[in-house]
Amino acid sequence: MPQTHPAIETTTTAAPAPPKALSLEERLTLINTAMTVRLDEAAVAYEVNTAHIPIEPVDLADVITGPVDTGPAPLPDLYPTPVAALLQRAHHRLLTGGWCSGALVDEDGARCMLGAIRIEARGDSGLEASAAAVLLDAIRRTFGDDVDSVPSFNDAHGSARVPLRMLDQAVGLADARGL
Is residue 18 a part of any domain in this protein? Predict the structure, then answer.
């Protein structure tokens, strides 16, 4: 009698597909999720570890203070010569009081370059004329001889940036000349 063997069924399964590479966005999302879990665990651990420490509420008014309004900083006396000192005071006046064009003084009290020199000269017309001459010379050194006067130069600008820079240069020029 022939021997029969029971049939052995073999099932073959397909090999698993290799894992698909994650895109950058997917990797960032995965890392973000993992970091969020770690931060949440750390927050809980911190709360548990510090729950026994007694604390008193802090009044923020005692901690946060603002600067005291003392007004503009005083002008240091950097230049010993009268014209340089006058130009420096005029520069400071424009910085603190404001600059304008089209008038010596506007309705808000802002002044043009010549208006600042005039008020700081305190009635000394010779000192005022010397300061205006040095200022005009400083302007012409930078912008050429086409500039007719200090008021025309002042009125040709829409902001105080260039006039203030010219006043500052005139201070250095007057000091270098010993005026």
Answer: no
Q: How deeply is 28 buried, as exposed, middle or buried, from its count of CB atoms within 10 A (0-12, 13-18, 19+)? A: exposed
pTM beyond 0.85, yes or no? no
Domain that holds residue 45: 23-54
Query: CB-based contacts of 102: which residues, under 8 Å, 6+ apart?
Result: 112, 155
Structure tokens at 18: 């290799």
pLDDT in tens, 116-161: 998 888 888 888 899 999 988 988 888 888 888 888 888 888 888 8
pLDDT of residue 149: 87
Average pLDDT over residues 37-54: 90
In a domain, 60, yes or no: no
In a domain, 97, yes or no: yes
Of 62-66, 76-80, 162-166, 172-176, the range with the lowest mean pLDDT is 62-66
Q: Is residue 63 part of a domain?
A: no
Same domain? For 118 and 35 the reply is no
The torsion angles phi and psi of 105, rounded to 5 degrees, stand at -140, 130
Counting the structural domains of the chain, the total is: 2
E strands of 34-157, at which residues? none
